[in-house]
Design goal:
Structural class: alpha/beta
Largest sheet: 6 strands, mixed
Bound molecules: ligand F0G
Number of helices: 15
Shape: globular
Helix content: 40-55%
Oligomer: single chain
Number of strands: 10
């Protein structure tokens, strides 16, 4: 049977009434790709897999939670939803709202949302306002607007979002037949690490897996409130998706770390960009800079000898590299131009 989307595939694990209609773009069912060349490049001795969430309909993991949040909102009679976003949540909210035939209102930090994500929100017809402030302020404003105007918030403070996102952990366990030893991922507003941990724990309680992974979360150095144990008032990083100084699911992330025996640490922008390049070149997999924070963390811990030998490691790649063409092209040399002649092109190609 072909893939039916997160809600129909996992309905018995989701808190939706049986009669709630799924608003779906057939999200989920994303590939778990083995990554031997990346493992070799990072001197990782174990088995490395990449959960490629860029293969979701809007190019990020947000679709898993959005299908559940929008379906629940529509079942409750909503005719609009609202979110703050560093980009991907807004792209996903706009797409699923369009699918449902309802309005999406989006508040974003000005100049700090990657071009692809902004294009998506606009293409799907969301009403977008940017503020001269960061994501944390945008989320505060959205929360207040939602209260004043009785509109449902579809950020991960909406519990249906986390519920949907936990299904990625189910898919990994179903495919591996067990949980990995380590699960690496980037941390921004901290909903995703909270969701994965919920998913693994539920499968463990249901005896579908016999062990739990260590949750290994990575923030960017310039936006590392959980690592620093304090709110970062003016976060900054090249990984704009995780440019967050006061994560909504802070406590959930700490619980995931502590209960799993994992870590939440940080990596520099240089380490993120290096990992971004290594991933794209060794495996042909293009992920956005925030996704590379998890890979950078894996590289760092591997180099420090902090990972058990022969472990099974999963790293979630949260969003597609094409989301942020500005970063991609700024790192590359622009291609030289040749006259339209075989010899001239051959010379420049060096073949
Ligand atoms: N990676 C990407 C590509 C993201 O877009 C986000 C979050 C994260 C990682 C971090 O996940 O917040 O659950 O810890 N993006 C949100 C947004 C904040 O508005 O699109 P998290």
């Amino acid at each position: 049977m072909s893939w039916r989307g997160v809600i129909e595939e996992f309905r018995s694990h989701l808190p939706l009434d049986a009669n709630v209609e799924a608003i779906t773009l057939l999200e989920g069912g994303t590939p778990l790709i083995d990554a031997p060349r990346l493992a070799e490049a990072l001197s990782i001795s174990g088995k490395l897999y990449l959960k490629y969430e860029a293969a979701n309909p809007t190019g990020s993991f947000k679709d898993r939670g959005m299908t559940v949040a929008i379906s629940a909102a529509v079942a409750n009679g909503a005719d609009a939803v609202i979110c703050a976003s560093t980009g991907n949540t807004s792209a996903s909210a706009a797409a699923y709202a369009a699918r449902a035939g309802i309005n999406a209102f989006v508040v974003i930090p000005e100049g700090k949302v990657a071009l692809g994500k902004l294009s998506q929100a606009m293409a799907h017809g969301a009403t977008v306002v940017s503020i001269d402030g960061g994501f944390d302020e945008a989320l505060e404003i959205v929360t207040e607007l939602a209260r004043q105007c009785s509109i449902i918030v579809v950020n991960s403070i909406n519990p249906f979002r986390i519920q949907g996102q936990k299904t990625a952990a189910f898919e990994i366990c179903n495919e591996l037949g067990q949980a990995p030893d380590y699960h690496f991922l980037p941390v921004g507003n901290a909903g995703n690490i909270t969701a994965y941990w919920m998913g693994y724990q539920e499968y463990h309680k249901s005896k579908l897996i016999g062990s739990l992974p260590r949750m290994m979360g990575f923030q960017a150095d310039g936006a590392a409130p959980i690592v620093l144990h304090r709110i970062v008032p003016d976060p900054d990083t090249v990984a704009t998706a995780i440019r967050i100084g006061n994560p909504a699911s802070w406590k959930g992330a700490e619980r995931a770390r502590d209960e799993s025996g994992g870590v939440i640490e940080s990596v520099t922008d240089d380490e993120i960009l290096q990992a971004y390049g290594i991933l794209a070149r060794t495996e042909g997999i293009f992920a956005e800079p925030a996704s590379a924070a998890g890979i950078a963390g894996l590289k760092k811990l591997g180099e420090l000898g902090r990972l058990a030998a022969s472990a099974t490691i999963v790293c979630t790649l949260t969003g597609h590299g094409l989301k942020d063409p500005t970063t991609a092209t700024s790192l590359a040399v622009s291609p030289p131009t040749a006259p339209p002649k075989v010899e001239a092109v051959r010379e420049l190609l060096g073949i």
